[in-house]
């Protein structure tokens, strides 16, 4: 099963268009999580206290943990997130904070090293940017580090279309080129 984490806010999202073509190419059953439709709990001291207690007791029965369980069980993960303000939409950060659960998506060794508990062998990160300046350490670099170092997902691939809003660039052509490239390179 593919878990499609959709952090696209706009109805006509260019990022989502690329992600949908990727999902077609992968050809597996897809479960979509639309992050804009989730009401995440407020991260208050009381909330963190309850969460810490649950984790200490290994009690993951509250529905709050369903997103982390879903993430851990997925065979393949596709994240679609436009590049905003040197990162990604805040709703993706909220999602990550809520799936990063000790005992579900990772645990620690006796030495304190994270050990991934996720089933996925591959994570695709799909992004678009209006400009051309997209340093990897912002946005994708963060997701890649979490996937590889915490979740145990070693194969992480970036699929991107940049320069979409630069004067004189043909945004539709850039998108088509990106989609053509992924159709040739993605192995099912």
UniProtKB/TrEMBL annotation:
Pfam families the record matches: Flavodoxin_2
Ranges for domain Flavodoxin-like fold: 2-183
Name of this chain's protein: NADPH-dependent FMN reductase
Originating organism: Butyrivibrio hungatei
Lineage, broadest ranks: Bacteria, Bacillati, Bacillota, Clostridia, Lachnospirales
